[in-house]
Amino acid sequence: MNNYLQRAEKIMQRINTLALISDDDNCINRIFGTNAFIKGRDTIFEWMNDAGLQTTIDNISNVRGKLLSDNANAKTLVIASHYDTVINAGKFDGPLGVLMGLDLLEQIIQAKIKLPFHIELIAFSDEEGVRFHTTYLGSKVVAGLFDKNVLNKKDENGITLQDVIQKLNRRTNQLDKDAIAKNNWLGYFEIHIEQGPVLYEKNIPIAVVNGIAGQQRLEIVFKGMAGHAGTVPMNMRSDALCAASEFILELEQFALEHKKNLVATVGKLNIINAASNVIPGEVVFSLDIRSADENVLSAAYKQIEIICCDVCKKRKIKFEWNLIQESKPILCSKEMNKLLSSSIKKSGYEVIELVSGAGHDAVAISEVSPVAMLFVRCFKGISHNPLENVELNDLAAAIKVSDNFIQELITQNKFII
Fold first, then answer.
1. Percent residues over pLDDT 90 in the chain
2. What's the pTM value of the predicted model, to 2 decimals?
3. What CATH number should be reported for the domain whose range is 214-327?
4. CB 262 within 8 Å of CB 224
5. Is 153:160 a contact under the CB 8 Å cutoff?
6. Is the pLDDT of residue 1 over 80?
7. Please, which residues have CB within 8 angstroms of residue 173's CB and are 6 or more apart in sequence?
8. CATH number of this structure's domain 2-213+329-412, picked from the four choices 3.40.50.720, 3.30.930.10, 1.10.10.10, 3.40.630.10
9. pLDDT by residue (tens digit) across 27-50?
């Protein structure tokens, strides 16, 4: 375990180094295309390159380090996670998987292990989708699923994704060439903090992920009538914010009634032309709906839209209902999970199986490859928050399991999607 702890300490040092790279001195912000994003990307590039990997930065700014098999025609195992963050982030969400993957490859290089397949370590550039409200930009490029219409999406300052990519000295007309062909994938492995409380409450360091919940992200616009706060009678107002508030509370009640299978969140709200003495005439807000059951997700989407329509009709508010992004629930590879479970047992830990309510790059990659995920316990399940924390002993446990898993993969060397 001492060696595992030493490796865990090195990973933690790198995580802490990356956490210092931020666009905000008071918290961790590393959003696609910013100065901190570029510095973080280049730091990861240096670490991969120094480890001896064939390292490149592709046209969506994924950092990619290859460890090649002597068999030039071998398939590729991808180990990956992301290096972008949410606003006011924790330091483990994403970088943990990237830097643990780097440690695994460093050990393979030091041990001079002959690989029957290629391994590519990828630090995905944009999983959170904060700037352009489009998750999985990096992994969609690698999976060959990138929608070029997304290039026209604008951030809050009116800057398009295409503009940002070009300022990063990348080529938007070459994005399709960065994909790994479907028939070249052996599998995909992602290590990630749980982002939930199950492992913490059970006092277990790691778990196998069985599947990932589907989600739908929307932007909703409520349009009423702006007016003078002192002159328009209360019963004659068309207040967009009051309508949005009523909808949000009804949304919460609906989600509570279906809490076993559903979560729904309004995480962002913007009052247009806001002023303390003006009745809000227009409000724009987000809606995030998630479920591991595709039928539940579909039915909830329709019912929530009806709730929205009823609130607006009652309050004489016009609304726009814009679906920004959706993903179906996915199942992880049974064959890969068997090997992962075997690796956990071999490492001396109890096998726990979980469904992830959070989205991950594995969602995009599952379209072209078998996927497997290992969860690592985090403090009270807190994530997307500066309190996000992982203990060294849990990192060490995840390293031990991952070592055994890679050895199992080398032995098996074949999967079916």
1. 93
2. 0.86
3. 3.30.70.360
4. no
5. yes
6. no
7. none
8. 3.40.630.10
9. 999 999 999 999 999 999 999 999
